[in-house]
Amino acid sequence: MVAGINEVNVGRWLNDNIDGFTSPYSYSLIAGGRSNLTYKVTDSAGRHVVLRRPPLGHVLATAHDMAREHRIVSAIGSSSVPVPRTLGICTDLSVNDAPFYVMSFVEGVVLDSPTKGETLQTPLRRVASDHLIDVLADLHSLNVDDIGLGDLAKRTGYIERQVKRWTTQWENSKTRDLSAIDEVARILANNIPPQQGVVVTHGDYRFGNCLTDIATGQIVAVLDWELCTLGDPLADLGYIGVYWTDNGHPLLREVDPSGIEGFPKYAELVQRYADKTGRDVSNVGYYRAFSSWRLAIISEGVFARFTKGAMGDTDQDTAVMKASTEVLAESALQAVREMS
Question: What is the rounded distance in angstroms from the CA atom of residue 81 to the CA atom of residue 277?
Fold first, then answer.
C-alpha cells in the first residue's frame, strides 16, 4: 500500500475517467513533504500519468485546493507555456479521502541542486537559463481574461497585501526577535513600487519547480502551481534571485543548480527578462528582498511548528531551520540596502 492512495477506489476511478488507461496500476511517490503530494501512476501497459493530492492529514483544504490548481494548470495549458496536460479531477472524498487530479507524465529532470546542474553539458547551462526566463516572460505575457483566470484573485495591490500579510504572519509565528525582519518589513512597506500590469504569477518559479530536457536544455514543463495568483510580474523575477548563485560566489540555496560553471549571472537573467518583456527591471532588488524576507518568515513558521511538536518529526535538524531564517533575513536586509 502507498500512503495517500486508496488503490482500489483510485484504480476504479482511473478506469472510469482516464481514456486509454487500464488496470492494474502501481503507484510511487515522486514528491512529498509538507507541500502537495505527487505520485507517478503506471498502468498495465507501462504507461504513466501523474496524480496530485493534498498532504496527508491536512485539514485546511483551501491551502491545498486541488480544484484551483487543476483549473490553473488547465488554463495555462491552453497557451505556449509548457505544463503537463490535465486529464481529470476527482472531488468526491469517498474515493480517496481528499480531492486529487491527474495529469500527463512529462519526461525531464528537476534541476534542484548543483549536482543535478552538472547533468547538463556546460554549453546547455546557459541555454536552460535563458529558456527559464523566456518561459517566465511568456507566462507574464498571457492575457488573464483570455485564458479564463481573470477572477483568480484581486488584480491590484499585490505587494502591499503581501507585505501586510507576512508582517502579520511573522508576529504570529516568530520564536524570537530578529531586527533584520522588522527593518526589512519597514523598508518594504515604505517603498512599495507601482505594479507593472496584472499577470499570472507562479509564486515559486525556479529550476526546482520545472522539468528540463537535459539533452536540449529546454524547459519542458513548469510544475507546482499551488501558490499561483494574479499579481506583480517582478515578484517572480525577484524570487529567482533568492535562489540564484553567480559562479564563484558562496552558494545561496542548495536546492538550485546555479553557481557552477556555465550558468549566467543573475543580472544577465534580469536583462534578458527586460529585453523580452519591455518591463522596467531597475527595481528588481526590491522584489528580491521581498522574496527573501517572505521565505525567512515561512522558514520561521516551519521552525516554530517543529519546536512545538506539531509536525511530528523529531529527526529534523531544528538548528538548521533556525539558521535558515536568519540567513534569509540577513539576505533580505542586504538586498534592501542595495536598492537603488
Answer: 15
